[in-house]
Design a protein that fits this description.
The chain is mainly alpha-helical. Helices cover 80% and strands 0% of the residues. The two termini are 22 Å apart.
Amino acid sequence: MLYEMVDRDSEVGGGILAGALAYRLFIWLLPLTLVVVAGLGVAADARSESPQQAATELGAGGLVSRSIAGAAESPNRWYALLVGIPVLVWVTRSMLRVLIGAHRLIWTDDRSRAPKPKLGAALRLLVLLLCLGVVSTVASAVRAWEPGPGLLVTLAALVFYSAIWLLVTLQLPHQQTDWTALIPGALVFGIGLELLHVAIAYFITPYAIAKQGTYGALGVAAGLLFGLFLISRLVVASAVVNATIWARQSRPGGSALGR
């Protein structure tokens, strides 16, 4: 099973797909940050946290916390909001196209050009991605406020991560399989995202901030891109897991999971 997963990942160029997705995620974060600054600028200014504290509480979000705190004082929040929301929707649609192409390649080895995603699908993806961010933020805040039930919060966040990603993958190519065939990949994504959150919050982000004095903004950008690449690699891995298990179960002698 593991050999087949590695082989499938190698055949479709999993690292290349993850790199393309990481780039899209980075571009997606730009208008998202603009909207956050415009809509939550007052709250960010009132918190007055150091980047190190924000990194511990918000994971990868801590990499841009200093920019948010500084921009919160800007008087042009409404202009940023009016510009940021349409751009965020447009960039989400572009990222959905990459996700569709990657999943279709992993599931069917179809290298033809992916169809253009519709606006409704892009809005649904945007809502689900924002839900992932909300769950991560709430879980981090609860752990920081009450360290005792940290394990319980972690398990609850893992369930939410998996459920949200299951809803995302239902919008992506999956050979018309039943939704239950997507559960293994969703669990891989949920568990992996929780582990990556710990790694990003406690290792990657503090290291990037510590090196900011040496490398400036390039050090922060490099740390952010590395974290996004790991997340993108996890997205590809979850699709590979689902496709490999489905292919094995669909062979003669196996119990097919698809319709």
